Amino acid sequence: xxxxxxxxxxxxxxxxxxxxxxxxxxxxxxxxxxxxxxxxxxxxxxxxxxxxxxxxxxxxxxxxxxxxxxxxxxxxxxxxxxxxxxxxxxxxxxxxxxxxxxxxxxxxxxxxxxxxxxxxxxxxxxxxxxxxxxxxxxxxxxxxxxxxxxxxxxxxxxxxxxxxxxxxxxxxxxxxxxxxxxxxxxxxxxxxxxxxxxxxxxxxxxxxxxxxxxxxx
Length: 217
Prior knowledge:
Layout lengths: L1 E5 L3 H7 L7 E3 L2 H6 L7 H11 L3 E5 L5 H12 L5 E5 L2 H12 L4 E6 L2 H10 L3 E4 L1 H6 L4 H12 L5 E4 L5 H9 L4 E4 L1 H8 L2 H21 L1
Parallel strand pairs: 1-2, 1-8, 2-3, 3-4, 4-5, 5-6, 6-7, 7-8
């Protein structure tokens, strides 16, 4: 099982990375935009992450045609060893299939239906990113759909990297169903490393220790 930070916010990544709870960082054009960045900023971001010790990095192609996606992927691969994210559109499937045949690590993203997971597995794509929260927002049962994906495809050769997770409870439910990997935004990432009850207990331990030290003195 692996957790990833779904953000391009350097201050957040710098805060969370030392916990060692995360295996890497995932991005897409929307995530970059939220941090005031664009595709042109990826080389600098990649180098900064590498210096921080982040070895697993995901970046998404641009374009709506297979040709444009492949050209974008080639540009991304010049950054160094990365996993290329490709949307699960018809053009994206064709691009992803070509990249996989060329030995590129690919994550099929914006996956919304279990059938798309089956297609990805048939094409030998290494990973898929179903958007759990967005499925639910659209009136679909996100947790149930991703659970069905996991039951249908297992973890070889295609692993599920669950995305658009709205709570730590979502993560726990999917992990119980066998989903192996998760990418989480700021709020869920903070819950993963610091549950509020745990932090309350830590404060209580320290307060009691201070009282004990005062008595001994």
